[in-house]
Every structure is written in structure tokens, then in C-alpha cells.
Amino acid sequence: MDQWLRNTNVVKVVALIIGILLWALVQMEDNTLPGTNGNGVREEQITNVAVTPKYDSARFHLASIEPAEVVVTLTGKESALRRALNASNYAVVLDLTDVEKGERIVPLTPVGFPSDVTVQISPPSAKVIVDEKSNKQMPVTINVTGIPDVGLKAGQPVVKPNKVTVTVPSAMIDAVESVRADVNVEKAQSAVSTTARLVAYDKDGKPLDTATINHPVVEVEVPITSPFTTVPLQLKLLGEPPPGLSVASLVQNTDKITVYGPQDVLNRMEYYEGPSINLAELTEEKEYTITLDVPPQDKVTQLDPEQVEVKINIVPSVTKTLEQIPLSIIGQNDGFNTEVVLPETGRLNLVVEGAPALLEKAKAQDTQAILDVSNLPPGRHVIPVTWNLPTFIKKAAQQDFTATVEISARP
């Protein structure tokens, strides 16, 4: 045996025999596998392979791809097929990088398969509809849901950012009606601060699934307060400046006030009575700036603002006579006739005092001379005249008026 192995010709013959046996063994293995042909090549099918589009998603929207899935047939030897099937990065690509808006048929391309495998795609192409995208700037709307704790009310939400850009296919740009998010304040006792996801809606209130929003999440704060209402703020003016001085102007820094409190109290509130100002204390010719606290009323929990600033300009007075002011009777009994006996004309002249600019506009028809005959019996009565004058116009000194009326029963 050792002599044979030392013989090179014998070794060559043995090696040749071993090679022939190995070749025959491989041939037998390939020919016994299902799907193989005489050359040891077989086929394998992969179904439901998704079509992967390649396009500029910032500019375009794919309205449809038909078909969305295809069948891939692989042909090759067992080892090559095994590598192909075990690969994780293969794909069927729909290359739209050079395609513009419209409908067209585009061939499908296999990507990521081994080079020693033949790839066949069925169908070999896909029909695609490409649409351009458009942008639309929209305000953010917050829909507050739920009811806060007893006696409290949700205020106006504050949202950041308050405007966003919505991107949709150009064919749908007019369908974008609103962009909003829901914030729940159920049983809340204090301000609700949260983040909320935005959704774009169409005119029918349906979400637009194809829309993208540049800031899809926003910060929201919903104030939780007592119920409130905003009403006129009315100052209470007392007295009048001393003789020789008059009010030329009175300006409040705010003429409205927000009042917080129980809803039944607010429902009855037509105005809010503010602080009092005694004009008799303004004894100098100048402009006064007065800051006053607004007084709280019963059951009112909060006021905004809590103070009011008032500027009052006091100037020297001038006088003017308002002539032929008719006497007006109030408080008459329906069962009696009431007539003015004196003055016979039923009219009076009155000297009034005020700031020059205001007095220039004052007219007799802006003034009322009033006789109150309430609860008076039949007969003649001398009654003092009371005056209803324009704002900041006052009666000049040394003028006390009376009138005589006669009350008689109706026949």
C-alpha cells in the first residue's frame, strides 16, 4: 500500500475517481429536488410583495397604485434561491423620481436580489396617479369638551402656535375647512395646560387623512374661572364744583368691566356701579387724575380691572340764559285735571353755568323743568320746580323757582 501511495500515477487516478464520484453525487442531489430541471435550476414564487414607490413625498401625493402588490418569480440554483429568500432588503420598486403630475404606467424594478438569480415580476408594471401637493395656512381651533367643577366656567383657550400650515393634494386644497384639537376640562378646578394633536377637517367635519400639518402637536391652556360677563362701568357723581368752576371733561381709562360671580347674579346685571366721585371737592382750576378702587358687590367674586383711573378737567365757568323752557307735570292722577296757573305761559327762563365748550352746545330743549304733583288733592298748590340739566351744566346761583298748579276733578 505504501508503495502505491508513493506512485504519483496511482494518486492521480484515485483523485480523479473521487472527483467523478463527488460530481455524480451533486448531480443526483439537484435532479432529485422538486422544481429543478436537468441543469439543477429551480423556480420559487413570492406572493403579495408590496410595490415600493420612490418619489418626492414633499412635492407629490400618490393618489393610487394598481396593483399595490405583485408576484415575484425567482429562478436559480438551490443555494442562490436560499440566499435570495433569506435576504431582508429585497424590494419591487416603482421609480417615480422623474415623473410629474398625472396618470401613467411605469415599469417595476426588482432591487436587492442576488445577481445569480433571475427575477420575474407579474405584472411587470403598475398604473399610478400622481398629484402635486399644496399648502394652506389655517388658524388653530380648540374644541373644549366637558364641564368644569361646580360654579366654574372654561375661558378662551390660549394655543401655541395659533396658526399652522396644512399640506394636502392640490385637488383637495379647497376642502380644508378647519384645523382643531379637543381638550377635556371635565371637573377641572384650575387652568388646564396640556398638549393636543391637531387634525384637519373638511366642510362636513370629516378628518382629511391625506393632510399633513407642520406643527401636528400644539400647547394649549384653558383658563378655568367663575362665570363672568362684561358690562359698562358707571361712576357715581356726587355734588358739583363750587360756583365759578365747572367740569369741562371727565374721562375714564376704561368704561367696561368684567365681573365674575354666580350666573344668576350676572344674568341680572346690565351695568356695574363703580366708585363715587364728589365733584364738590374739586375746588381748583386744573386737571385732576384720580385712581379709585372699584367696590365689590354682594356675591361678586372678582373684578377686572379692580381700579379705574379718572381724569377730570376743571375750568372757570361761563353763564348762559336758556329761554322758554316748558314746565312738565309728573305724577298726575288720571281722575283729575292739572293745569299750570302761574306762570301763565307755562314756561320759564333759566340762567345756567358751565364750561364754555359745553355751554355753547346747551339748548332749551335739552333741559326739563319738572313739577311733581304726586299725592296732591284738588285745589291750587305752589310747587318747587326741579331741573333736569345736560351733563356738567348747572343752575346759576340765586334762582329758586316755583309754579302754581290747579288740580280739579274731571266732570
Q: Biggest β-sheet, characterized? A: 11 strands, mixed
- How many β-strands, per DSSP? 31
Give the CATH H-level superfamily of the largest domain.
YbbR-like domain
Envelope shape:
rod-shaped
Number of helices: 5
Approximately how much beta-strand content do the residues carry?
over 45%
Quote the distance from N terminus to C terminus.
168 Å
Number of domains: 5
CA radius of gyration is 49 Å
Mean pLDDT: 88
The CATH architecture of the largest domain comes to Beta Complex
Helix content: 10-25%
Protein name: YbbR-like domain-containing protein
Organism: Paenibacillus xerothermodurans
Could you please describe the fold and organization of this structure?
With about 400 residues, the chain is mostly beta strands. The protein is about 10% helix and about 50% strand. Strands 1, 2, 3, 4, 5, 6, 7, 10, 11, 13 and 14 form an 11-stranded mixed beta sheet that branches. β4 and β5 (about 100-110) form a beta hairpin. InterPro entries: c-di-AMP_regulator (IPR053154), YbbR (IPR012505).
